[in-house]
Amino acid sequence: MAAAIGWTIAPLEHLRPTPQNIAAGVVTLVIGLIIVRWRWGTRHVLRVPGTVAPEFDPPEDLRPAEADVLLHGKPRRRDVIATVVDLALRGFIRIEERAEGEGPPTWVLERIDASGGDLREYERKTLAGLFAHGKTVQLAALEPRFFVAEDLVEDELEGDLVRRGWFEDAPARLRSRWATAGWVTALVGIAVTFVLGNLFSLGLAGAAVSAVGVLVYAASPWRPARTTTGEALTLRGGLRAFSSDRG
Fold first, then answer.
1. Which of 143, 166, 189 lies at the terminal end of a domain, its last residue?
2. Rg (CA), the chain
3. Strand runs (DSSP E) across 31-158, as ranges?
4. Fewer CB within 10 A of the end CB, N or C, for the chain?
5. Cα–Cα distance between 25 and 129 in angstroms, integer?
6. What's the pLDDT at 53?
7. From CA 151, how far away is CA 75, in angstroms rounded?
């Protein structure tokens, strides 16, 4: 009981701006910001100003859906549509308008027996989802049943870019971890403020820890997920410069 005498939880007591307290807070804040910057990611790649020389072939055999996810950091429904169109252009799917009986013409997708050796896994799942019930399917019939396959395709597409070393981790998962680390750090800082304030009158050091945690939490939605390799791909051929949707 004697050891607890003199301890207080009053925050203003621990944040009193004495020279030692201010110095401890500043040093802690600077160290925390240095650590955050070190762990932040690769968006500091040097960009040389000047005219972009476009390359007319996709970098590293880049598919349209892969380019969109790489640029905007998350898969979307339009990436699945882009994959379907790309598969049609490459001869794996035939898309044509057909008359069915006496009704109006409708768009029909037909699976072509082409070699699957050049297919990524998410493209295989796209084909499997489209033609789960036969080699032909009406476009109107896809809406009620293809949405499950779309989720699988998006997950596989994101995972494929992680495995190829273009993303450090799935962007949503990576940013969620940073948000969690931020609020946990902020809570730890409150405890550190109380302990250091009572033991050494250096509560501002703990307040600085909380400030760093709040900053990390607030900035987590913008945490870059691309690796150096992925970042370099966005710079090749003016991929980012010619993107009209900033996402």
1. 166
2. 27
3. 93-99, 105-111, 136-138
4. N
5. 57
6. 58
7. 9
Please give the share of the chain, as a percent, with pLDDT higher than 90: 59
State the amino acid at position 1 in one-letter form.
Answer: M
Q: Would you say 92 and 111 are in contact if contact means Cβ atoms under 8 Å apart? A: yes
Q: Is residue 159 part of a domain?
A: yes
CB neighbour list of residue 172: distance below 8 Å, 6 or more residues apart: 74
Read off φ and ψ for residue 168, nearest 5 degrees.
-65, -40
Q: Which of 120, 104, 136 is nearest to 64 (CA)?
A: 120
Alpha-carbon span 189 to 194, nearest angstrom: 9
**Of residues 175, 144, 179, 146, the one with CA closest to residue 158:** 175
Here the tokens at position 124 are: 């295989």
User: What share of the chain has pLDDT > 70, as a percent?
Assistant: 80
Residue 202, in any domain of the structure:
yes
Which residue from 145, 168, 170 is spatially nearest to 156, judged by alpha carbons? 170
The pTM assigned to this predicted structure is 0.76
Contact 148, 125 (CB under 8 A): no
Helices first, then strands: H and E counts in the chain: 9, 3
Its domain, for residue 206, covers 8-43+170-222
Cβ–Cβ contacts within 10 Å for residue 23, how many? 13
Handedness of CA 112, 116, 122, 123 (dihedral sign): negative
3-class SS letters over 208-243: HHHHHHHHHHHHHHHCCCECHHHHHHHHHHHCCCCC
